[in-house]
Amino acid sequence: MIVLAEAGGFLCGNRIGAVNVAPHTSYSHHLQGYFLENDADYEIQNRDKPPSLKKRFWENKKAWFDKSMAVHGLKRVKSIECDATQFDLSSVAPIAFCLIDVDLYIPVKDLLPKVFSRMSSGGIIVVDDCQPDQMWDGALQAYREFARERNLSTEIVAEKLGVVRLP
């Protein structure tokens, strides 16, 4: 079985691309996560982000994702509403592809090593929002730190997607 996983995503935009990359897979999971207030507070207090950042994260609903999947005829997707940083990834491992789209430094920093340890050989992790000097550049900082800590090369594609390729 091949598992695709995605953590995060705003208004379902990235989710469809993540699911469609392998239409013959057996199963896909979407972890509908919520940003914790302290994650946003960290960005505001330690990364000089504006207080308005907090307002941007309360517009994410599992029902929107489920409806988006149904509208596009995608039936082999199981969405799970949870704190993605607390989800037991062993229940869906090994993972062949994972899109991490949680924007903020703390959850990306927490998720990357957990996902990495559950990836299959040849798997790919993509971290969205890896652009410098943007509202969501915490994802880029966490991605760079993760790569540096593991002696991995960094690869940014489409000007905003940080890629980790497992051997």
Key features of this structure:
single chain; 167 residues; alpha/beta; Rossmann fold; seven-stranded mixed sheet
Question: What this model shows, in words?
Answer:
This protein is α/β, with parallel strands linked by helices. The protein has one domain: Rossmann fold (3-Layer(aba) Sandwich). About 11% of the residues have low confidence.
How many H/I helical runs?
Answer: 5
Task: Quickly name the level 1 CATH class.
Answer: Alpha Beta
Cα-atom Rg, whole angstroms?
15 Å
The biggest beta sheet, please?
A: 7 strands, mixed
**Beta-strand content:** 15-25%
CATH superfamily: Vaccinia Virus protein VP39
Straight-line N-to-C gap: 19 Å
Overall, the morphology is globular
pLDDT averaged residue by residue:
79
Uncertain parts: 10-27
Count all strands and give the number. Answer: 7
Assign the CATH architecture.
3-Layer(aba) Sandwich
SSE order and pairing:
Elements: E1 3-8, H1 13-20, E2 27-32, H2 37-46, H3 62-71, E3 77-81, E4 95-101, H4 105-116, E5 119-127, H5 138-149, E6 156-157, E7 161-165
Parallel strand pairs: 1-2, 1-4, 2-3, 4-5
Antiparallel strand pairs: 5-7, 6-7
Short description:
The chain has 167 residues and is of the alpha/beta class. It has five helices and seven strands; from the N terminus they run βαβααββαβαββ.
